[in-house]
Amino acid sequence: MLVIRLIRVGKKHSPDFRMVVTDKKNPPRGGRFLEMLGHYNPKLKQKNFKEERIRYWLKNGAKLSDTCHNLLVGAGIIKAKKIKLKISSKGKGKPEEGKLEEKSKEKAEEKPKLKKGPKEEKSEEKKEPSSAKASDGEEKKE
User: Fold this and answer.
1) pLDDT tens digit string along 91-105?
2) Which of 3, 26, 76, 77 has the fewest CB atoms within 10 Å, i.e. is most exposed?
3) Is residue 82 part of a domain?
4) How many of the other CB atoms lie within 10 Å of CB of 84?
5) Checking DSSP bridges between strand 35-41 and strand 17-23, what pairing results, if any?
6) Is the pTM of this model over 0.70?
7) Is residue 84 part of a domain?
């Protein structure tokens, strides 16, 4: 299946994207694409798209990624509403309260399930007799 999407070509801290037509199975950082349809620089807000070629590929069944769809709507090439993007935080920000409660319950259930290694069992056995001796000594004092 053909898809129109962005491929990053810029340096570090200098994002620069190409809009290309590629097979959906190809990796986004791959360099294998059928045709370059435009260019997008988010820092400088520059957009250069080949309108005729984009319309050609859309007529031939190519699908748009959500970001490309929104860029083309903003440029006026497509007449549609923008798609609300779901951005994953990848560990940044605060987790939702419901998820936080579920995680704390899961951790509480996991703690009793942990098995102690042989070294930990031996160290506990050594501690018990000393406490037993102390308790015997206390009884003798009384």
Assistant:
1) 555 445 445 555 555
2) 76
3) no
4) 7
5) antiparallel
6) no
7) no
Show the domain range for 135: 97-141
Query: Please, what's the largest Cα pairwise distance for the chain?
Result: 100
- b/e per residue, 100-131, with b = 16+ CB within 10 A? eeeeeeeeeeeeeeeeeeeeeeeeeeeeeeee
Among 45, 75, 105, the domain-final residue is 75
Q: Which amino acid does the sequence have at 44?
A: L
8 and 71 fall within a common domain: yes
The 63-64 sheet, strands edge to edge: 46-49, 35-41, 17-23, 2-8, 63-64
Residue 87 lies in a domain: no
Q: Is the same domain home to 102 and 71?
A: no
Residue 88 burial (10 A CB sphere; 0-12, 13-18, 19+): exposed
61-65, 110-114, 116-120, range with the lowest pLDDT: 110-114
Tokens of 53: 């070629």
CB count within 10 Å of CB 72 equals: 25
